[in-house]
Design brief:
- By secondary structure, the chain is of the alpha+beta class.
- It has a single domain (34-319), classed as Glutamine Phosphoribosylpyrophosphate, subunit 1, domain 1, CATH 3.60.20.30.
- It has helices at residues 5-24, 44-56, 61-74, 119-129, 137-146, 157-168, 238-241, 246-255, 260-274; strands at 36-40, 95-101, 106-113, 134-136, 185-190, 196-202, 223-226, 230-236, 283-289, 294-298, 306-311, 314-319.
- Strand 9 (283-289) and strand 10 form a beta hairpin.
- Helix 2 packs antiparallel against helix 3 (61-74), helix 3 (61-74) runs antiparallel to helix 4 and helix 8 crosses helix 9 (260-274).
- It binds glycine.
- Glycine binds next to strand 8.
Length: 325
């Protein structure tokens, strides 16, 4: 539920007073500086900055994740998420997203959504306004329209040109035989007080077969969050990653006491053991513990994972160490 601004202002003021009191009493001050946001790829930096802004203004962790991911969904220059995302083989932009609250253990997931640029916002409404968890295709579009979203063309001149180029190339690759790579936004947040949340949004693989659903919108695959342990998200070849329930695997390892980095490495080890050829493709994960410690890993050293971190009130971009196990 959205709180009125005056209540937020009141909470912010009383929170600041409580923090000052705690400092005077010798305890460390708890402020927004305790919030940590972790996102995939360099475009995650702007998403983190927006999330931190929303959180500092009194928004919830879910508000922060949703609004942070919206930044990337709205960006026409990101061709793998939201508006401007590369379309399916028939030239239709088909979006997937999911969001999860680590406190209530509720999730919302939207698959194969056409014409609406912010699938993570539709996913959040599905989670908060209905008893369902996952909705796809035409039903998801009708739900979005009922929730007030306006359908629009999601192809940009750039994405249309790229699709036409692919379509008009003789013997072009297709997903019956080959695949193109792509980058998903996965975003995790920890509020510094024991709560975590996760979100994920993608247009999926370029030129995918219409109706294809991979890991990003699936709970436990593209994202997962549990306050008792932490949160995780995945980016890369989602057709394969979905088979490993990657995000649940990582959070489950953290629940058993593993550091987020160790949990990410464990997932890579598991994937590499069961399918050694996976070293050749892009499989990347990020993780955050409820205490704000983080992990990130990439299977393939030729396709390293960049991730964006917001911590102690400032942002930075890093490269995950490739998994060499
Ligand atoms: N990981 C995103 C996708 O494969 O669609």
């Amino acid at each position: 539920m959205t709180e009125p601004l005056d209540r937020r202002a009141f909470l912010a003021a009383t929170g600041a007073a409580a923090a000052a009191l705690a400092t005077t009493a010798g305890a460390p001050a708890q402020s927004d500086a305790g919030a940590v946001f972790l996102s995939t790829w360099d475009f995650g930096a702007e998403a983190n900055r927006r999330a931190a802004e929303v959180f500092a203004a009194g928004g919830s962790l879910l508000d922060a994740i949703e609004k942070g991911v919206n930044v990337v969904e709205d960006d026409p220059n990101v061709t793998s998420v939201g508006y401007g995302g590369l379309p399916n083989s028939e030239g239709e932009v088909e979006l997937d997203a999911g969001i999860m609250d680590g406190t209530s253990h509720r999730a919302g997931s939207i698959c194969n959504l056409h014409k609406i640029k912010n699938p993570i916002s539709v996913a959040r409404l599905l989670m908060e306004k209905t008893l369902h968890t996952t909705m796809a295709g035409d039903g998801a579009l009708r739900f979005a329209i009922e929730m007030g979203f306006t359908p629009q063309q999601l192809l940009t001149p750039k994405s249309l040109t790229e699709w036409l180029k692919w379509k008009n190339t003789p013997n072009h690759s297709t997903f019956w035989i080959d695949r193109e790579h792509h980058d998903t936004i996965g975003m995790l947040g920890a509020d510094g007080k024991g709560k975590v949340a996760a979100g994920c949004s993608t247009s999926g693989l370029a030129w995918k077969l219409p109706g294809r659903v991979a890991d990003s919108p699936l709970v436990g695959c593209g994202y997962y969050a549990d306050d008792a342990a932490g949160a995780a998200s995945a980016t890369g070849n989602g057709d394969v990653m979905a088979n490993y329930c990657t995000s649940f695997f990582i959070v489950n390892r953290m629940a058993g006491g593993a550091h987020p980095q160790e949990a990410c490495n464990d997932l890579m080890r598991f994937m590499a053991r069961t399918a050694p050829q996976l070293h050749e493709d892009m499989y990347c994960v990020i993780a955050i513990a409820a205490n704000g410690e983080i992990g990130a890993a990439s299977m393939n050293s030729k396709q390293p994972l960049q991730y964006a971190l917001w911590k102690n009130g400032s942002g930075s971009i890093h490269t995950a160490p490739p998994f060499l196990g």
